[in-house]
UniProtKB/TrEMBL annotation:
Probable oxidoreductase that may play a role as regulator of mitochondrial function. It comes from Nannocystis punicea. Interacts with COX5B; this interaction may contribute to localize PYROXD2 to the inner face of the inner mitochondrial membrane. Residues 16-280 form the Amine oxidase domain. This is Pyridine nucleotide-disulfide oxidoreductase domain-containing protein 2. It holds the Pfam family Amino_oxidase.
Length: 507
């Protein structure tokens, strides 16, 4: 890039890349600085992590938003070569007692496989209602706050139905809607993708949205690996004149007065932003405690960042398999994602154990079967498996003392639902919370959610009031990561919204 860029983006996670693409499409010269020396994408990536020829997603793996998020719709990644694969069942929720509930984009199919037939009809009816209001709901939940126009589209009755759902706890909503345990464990289980437990006040929103978007966007699987999404965004950035630099760790935001004007890299290189816009796809605390001079940040912000509420840690395992997982329930063999949570009581017990700092004895699992629907992920006849559980970030004695035993616990959990699973394992890779943070500094303590996703850490409180509209205390500095509204999930909207604010500020 000849001359200084107009804007600099720190970090090439999905939000950083979306922000960079939107700014480049608007005519700005954009430079993305990525610390990783080998690849871009942050937690959106893929690599051969177990055996040669077995491609594993390093973080995010299943994507409901490529066709429904305003950010990804604007980029139209499929038109740029991303191929999305889908399963018959997007999500399957089996239990050791043989009961099962499944979510599918085919609502008639979902109705027949959602536990009790009456619960199936209830779920399908809810999903049909959601399909009719999804654009307005996504407008309320994903766009830059405040978002009044989408609210008006739900008046007079839709807004009250949505509010009644979103103001519930996950367990409360499940018990109100469904009669059987199989159906009741689905949405509270989905909420445990982050640190939201079944009994948490106002905790129903995340599980509801993950369940509903599974019926619209589906849990898509990018052919070749999640890296395909990051690669497509980088290609779009370059087509519009932007650049990305690997092995370029930013260690300081350069300022003049109280305005950000560029960055200094770890090797001492200083890069200036001609239009004086710096966007950070970073952890909020890292940005305001480490990258910005302390005397430029209000004291109350510093105090809050020093005790910033992170979410739970994540313990992930990748397996190379000789054959598909031999699930006891046939529906699980046709599902993109299998969620292992036995009941509401089981999920509540799991939540309590993690919050006490204990390693759960019957871990809730999110299990991905990418290679069943994308044969490029493994050699012919072989398969990959991907799974994680939520855990305390720092168990007593540290992860080195617990990692192998806890991975064995995950093996046993799957074996209980799929007798014979262990005999299919060719290789196993353990990725404990410290490994995730070493891979991507934004995953503090293995937190995948950009900080806690409790209700009081959302909306105008994300990352803290009054900095919820992406502008940081230093003029010209913007937070565009999942630590900003609307938070966790590969939807790109944190970056998309931040880019709109930047463009507005630049006139």
């Amino acid at each position: 890039m000849a001359g200084d860029p107009d804007a600099i983006v720190i970090g090439s996670g999905p939000n950083g890349l979306v922000a960079a693409c939107m700014l480049a499409r608007a005519g700005l010269r954009v430079l993305v600085c990525e610390a990783n020396p080998r690849r871009w994408g942050g937690a959106l990536g893929s690599e051969e992590g177990t055996l040669p020829g077995f491609v594993h997603d390093v973080g995010a793996a299943f994507f409901p938003f490529p066709r429904i998020s305003p950010a990804f719709r604007a980029l139209d990644l499929e038109k740029q070569g991303v191929e999305l694969c889908f399963a018959e069942f997007d999500s399957c929720h089996p239990a050791p007692d043989g009961s099962v509930a499944c979510i599918s984009r085919d609502l008639d199919l979902a109705a027949r496989h959602f536990g009790d037939p009456r619960d199936g009809e209830t779920f399908a009816a809810l999903a049909r209602w959601y399909r009719g209001v999804e654009p307005a709901v996504l407008g309320i939940l994903l766009n830059t706050l405040p978002t009044l126009s989408p609210v008006l589209k739900l008046l007079p009755f839709g807004i009250f139905k949505l509010a009644r759902i979103l103001l519930s706890s996950g367990a409360g909503l499940a018990r109100r809607l469904f009669r059987g345990e199989a159906a009741r464990r689905v949405m509270p289980g989905l909420a445990l993708h982050v640190d939201v437990g079944p009994r948490d006040p106002l905790g129903a929103a995340l599980g509801f949205m993950l369940g509903m978007t599974a019926t619209t966007g589906g849990y898509s699987i990018p052919r070749g690996g999640a890296q395909a999404l990051a690669d497509a965004m980088v290609a779009d950035l370059r087509r519009h004149g932007g650049e990305i630099r690997l092995a370029s760790r930013v260690e300081r935001i350069l300022t003049e007065g109280r305005r950000a004007v560029g960055v200094r890299l770890a090797d001492g290189t200083e890069l200036r932003a001609a239009r004086r816009a710096v966007l950070a796809d970073t952890a909020a605390a890292s940005l305001l405690l480490d990258l910005v001079a302390r005397d430029l940040v209000p004291a109350r912000v510093v105090r809050f960042m020093e005790r910033f509420p992170q979410g739970w840690g994540t313990f992930k395992v990748d397996w190379a398999l000789s054959s598909p997982v031999p699930w006891s329930v046939p529906e699980a063999r046709r599902a993109a994602v299998v969620h292992a949570g036995d009941s509401l009581d089981d999920l509540e017990r799991f939540t309590a154990q993690v919050r006490r700092g204990e390693l759960p004895d019957n871990p809730y699992l999110v299990i991905g079967q990418q290679s069943l629907f994308d044969p490029t992920r493994a050699p012919a006849g072989k398969h990959t498996l991907w799974a994680y559980s939520r855990v305390p970030s720092h168990p007593p004695g540290g992860w080195q003392a617990h990692a192998d035993a806890f991975a064995d616990r995950l093996d046993a959990r799957i074996e209980g639902l799929a007798p014979g699973f262990r005999s299919t394992v060719l290789a196993r890779r353990i990725v404990a919370p410290p490994d995730l943070e070493a891979m991507d500094a934004n995953l503090v303590g293995g937190d995948l959610g950009g900080g806690s996703n409790a209700w009081h850490r959302q909306l105008v409180f994300r990352p803290l009031f009054p900095y919820f509209r992406h502008r940081m205390p230093v003029e010209g500095l913007y937070l565009c990561s999942s630590y900003a509204h609307p938070g966790a999930g590969v939807h790109g909207m944190c970056g998309y919204n931040a880019a709109q604010i930047v463009l507005r500020d630049l006139g």
